[in-house]
Specification:
Length: about 120
């Protein structure tokens, strides 16, 4: 289930984001977390079944479009389709709000791999 990331999830969120290429550096990771916490256009979601196992972050481009910024699954839970389930749930959430999801340069290869049909 996709849930909004809250302040009490910060350490878990940082841990999951640290697996994203380009976010391994602590200073960069702290800057990214600050952006999600302080910018209303940036939204961070966690994937939770029994435990929190994944994270997905978006940036609202305009009133109708969101751009996927980050996708990460805990390494011990990879290759189970969780990333695809997170993106699919995110697309549903955005569609309910009249918005579409687009991939950015870094996330497009993942969409292509998953066959989600997102540009």
């Amino acid at each position: 289930m996709l849930i909004r990331c809250k302040q009490d999830h910060k350490k878990i969120a940082m841990g999951l984001l640290s697996f994203v290429p380009g976010e391994e550096n602590l200073k960069q990771l702290q800057q990214t977390m600050h952006e999600y916490e302080s910018n209303d256009d940036w939204k961070l979601f966690l994937w939770k079944n029994e435990d929190i196992t994944g994270i997905v972050g978006i940036r609202m481009v305009d009133e109708t479009m969101a751009e996927l910024q980050h996708v990460s699954v805990n390494p011990s839970h990879r290759n189970q389709g969780l990333g695809k389930m997170m993106i699919s749930s995110l697309i549903d959430w955005l569609t309910e709000r009249g918005k579409t999801l687009v991939a950015n340069e870094r996330t497009k290869p993942y969409f292509d791999k998953c066959g989600l049909g997102v540009s």
